[in-house]
Specification:
The structure is a homodimer.
Chain A: H1 13-36, E1 41-47, H2 53-63, E2 69-73, H3 79-82, H4 88-93, E3 100-104, H5 109-116, H6 122-141, E4 145-152, H7 155-167, H8 177-184, H9 186-200, E5 205-211, H10 215-238, H11 268-291, E6 296-302, H12 308-317, E7 324-328, H13 334-337, H14 343-347, E8 355-359, H15 368-371, H16 377-396, E9 400-407, H17 410-422, H18 432-439, H19 441-454, E10 462-466, H20 470-491
Parallel strand pairs in A: 1-3, 1-4, 2-3, 4-5, 6-8, 6-9, 7-8, 9-10
Helix pairs in contact in A: 1-10, 5-6, 5-9, 11-20, 12-20
């Protein structure tokens, strides 16, 4: 697959200059249009050392308006980065709509090098590549334009280039021992890269293999490819797309939720006793998790007035304030709106040993956004898989994940709305929106059923809380969370 | 000063319940009004362990709408936090307008404990306290409401409280060795705290000393104080304030800028040779700084078309892309707008060994915001001191700071505007705004003069670049930046 890129294509200065000016103008105009469009551009550079990755990034920064370009290059993860799933740092750096993000030594570099040096086996390599595919797929589905460049040199060409750099006293610092070590492993490197490229060369995130031996040829190839892709993407986005048809489907009419025994209750003395005990148990487990650097994410979803706030406060009170944080999920800020909907949840992921409590969560995509039409059907339809994958990453990193659905019956909700309306200091909790949501109970119920069905797994089950009795609900929340942590502690 | 808080004030359950409901309602209503107002609230809790700091924070979260409350508690800084000035983590966590931020173990805790255990001397303690004062002053000037609570117990009271916690099997985990160690140092602790409180008890950031022995009394005191302060602040913000009069002042008509020799130039061969040399020199120094964990901030200001972009690209190209980042400063996002204007610059501060290049910077406050009236006179007037203090923190942390002013004459600017207008691929760089700014050359010039005068110091001088000749300017930028790094490397 690299043969064409080893033919030593060249282009004369005259031909370059003639093509360059036109291309440069066209790119500037496209960048203007991109700013008005609502998608980001992700350009990733990988390849042979010395084949012009950095030079290409610099050229793009020179030709285009750098105010709308974000350049990122990666080295070994910092401590804080290591404390989160490996894609956390890429998520943080993703460009927003209208921006072009240039990534050097991005998500392919480390898996490829690990494979070359035998630090991971084929199966693990494939696992990581598939994970990359999922990541790119999710961004592309959200509208991102993704371009991947493999900057190529053959083994002789790389040697020549490294020697030339070494001979230049002004550039010799660019060549280190590791570069020569990589060069000696040229064949394994190219084999691993070839495998990676074949496995991840998909229509929404194409690889372009660039002959890196001639600077002018290489530059034109990269910029022309960027140009063409921008033209195509802008045209596609402009063409009115017919709303994607969802496959004919039967919405689940019932789920395990329907089987809950909603009459369960605890009397006050039992509650008081159990609360003390459950909280102490949770506190001990949380301290142990902190000591062992295990972090947790607990999220709370549920009907309006189901008691999320009260449950969260009781959980939080059992924990050391330095090691837990409650994040209420409200309307997104403009930065958040200019990113993938999962971006703002990645943002807050807890450090090692810390617990993050989400008051509402990414499941909003499958609940309010679905029912109210804020997300299009194809958007929320693919969110099931996106969310499952996101949670897999948390679990794979060793985090505890506890997902609570606080359930109440419509009758109980009505009672609580009435109470909120009549108790002065509770009135603020009741808004017109609550009544409007209540009117759509059936639509929400269908969405909840489907969410619970499709996003429960053995590793990340929904914990359903019978919430008609607040005492019962709170004890069950605290005990379930404690159990999730206990299971995790037992595992390692 | 703690005597009154040791009288053991109590309040009966009946009196508490009667007062509580009214207070709770009033606070909820105030919180509503706060959301509409354009200032944040910062509530800091310090004091004797066991005196109810955490409990107060939990109560505020229970009584008020937690969606507009941010709670933060601190332990020892993480690696990434240690790599920035010590206030970085507090800046990151500051509440935005409309929010209430609750801070536990905040910026007072560590200096006080350090003093108690002799890790810092009196002079250093005072230095840190003054630094805190400056921090709080800056936030208050920007409209923040700041409340500080010292939760108090006398030595006997604390012992009793710790013993009680220890005796309770459900709460004994809250008491550790360090708590008893602190208790044995009670007197030094109270002495250091008393000193800190006296030194930092100022009208815009008052301390309230709270008798922590009775839970009901303590809770009412905290919440009533918060209530009263909110009422006052909201009323004050509503009252139309007359524009603050600036002291009669003579704007500087000239500065060192006027003395620049704007005819300096480099011919092309000299430039090419010098560029190679200067870049190699900078590259070597930057790698050395990276190896030693020294980070740098380079900022670029200058007239429109003065050549900032070109200079930045040439600096960036000399540096390892993994260790530097260019941040163009554009219009603030809505999150940024809801914070102090320095917040967004704190946000990006580089990790150890990294270089951050700002294309425009916090000096916008003293330039465009001043001239265009985006900042009120009293706002930009106090910004000189705020900025000097901010930069002091960077320097104190050991960072390299290089501030470039790219200077051109009005004639040269006119020439460049014309050129941009006529060269197709440069046209995007020229906007109507550039012409409008040009028309205000005199006002901008006065602002520049004053900025250079008032924010240059031996440690953070403005580096003035004679920019009429681009070759000369670029070489001087690269060499000056290299010199700044060299000086820093020589120091340690």
């Amino acid at each position: 697959m690299f043969e064409t890129a080893e033919l030593g294509a060249k282009i004369s200065r005259e031909a370059f200059d003639a093509a360059a000016e036109k291309l440069r103008l066209a790119l500037l105009a496209l960048q203007d249009r991109l700013r008005e469009a609502n998608f980001p551009v992700i350009v990733l550079f990988a390849g042979v050392d010395g084949a012009g990755k950095t030079e290409s990034v610099n050229l793009i920064n020179e030709w285009l308006d750098p105010h709308w370009i974000v350049t990122r290059a990666y080295e070994d993860p910092s401590q804080e980065e290591s404390e989160r799933p490996s894609f956390w740092r890429y998520w943080r750096d993703l460009p927003k709509s209208g921006q072009i993000g240039l990534f050097l030594s991005g998500w392919y570099s480390r898996p490829i090098l690990w494979r070359v040096y035998g630090e991971i086996a084929d199966a693990d390599f494939n696992y990581r590549l598939d994970h990359i595919k999922t990541f790119e797929r999710l961004l592309a589905d959200d509208g991102a334009l993704i371009l991947k460049f493999w900057m190529h040199l053959d083994k002789k060409g790389q040697k020549k280039r490294l020697k030339a750099l070494e001979a230049d006293p002004l550039q010799s610092w660019k060549v280190g021992k590791q570069d020569w070590r990589n060069w000696r492993h040229y064949k394994s490197f190219i084999d691993a890269a070839g495998h990676a490229i074949r496995r991840t060369d998909v229509s929404h995130a194409r690889w372009t293999i660039v002959d890196g031996s001639d600077e002018r040829h290489r530059s034109l190839t990269v910029l022309q490819t960027l140009h063409d892709a921008l033209v195509r993407q802008l045209a596609e986005r402009q063409a009115k797309k017919p709303a994607a048809k969802l496959k004919a489907r039967t919405a689940p009419k019932a789920s395990v939720l329907s089987a809950l025994d909603m009459t369960q209750a605890l009397d006050k003395p039992t509650y008081e006793r159990d609360l003390q005990e459950a909280r102490a148990d949770l506190a001990v487990l949380a301290r142990e998790a902190h000591a062992r650097g295990i972090s947790s994410v607990a999220l709370f979803e549920g009907w309006d007035a189901a008691g999320k706030g009260g449950a969260i406060r009781r959980v939080a009170a059992a924990l050391d304030a330095r090691h837990r944080q409650v994040v209420p999920v409200a309307a997104p800020t403009d930065e958040e709106k200019a990113h993938h909907y999962l971006w703002r949840f990645w943002r807050h992921l807890p450090r090692a040993g810390h617990m993050l409590i989400y008051d509402r969560s990414w499941y909003g995509r499958l609940l309010v956004e679905r029912v109210e039409g804020f997300a299009r059907p194809e958007e929320w339809e693919r969110a099931y898989a996106e969310i499952n994958d996101f949670e897999d990453q948390l679990l794979h990193h060793g985090m505890v994940l506890a997902k609570f659905w606080l359930h109440i019956t419509p009758e109980e909700q009505y009672k609580r709305f009435q109470e909120r309306d009549s108790v002065a200091y509770k009135k603020w909790k009741l808004t017109d929106e609550d009544w409007r949501n209540r009117a759509k109970w059936d639509a929400y119920e269908a969405a909840v059923h489907e969410m619970v069905e499709r996003t429960s797994s053995a590793a990340a089950p929904w914990i359903l809380i019978e919430g008609n009795d607040k005492n019962f609900a709170r004890i069950k929340v605290i005990r379930s969370l404690a159990d999730r942590i206990r299971q995790r502690l037992a595992r390692s």
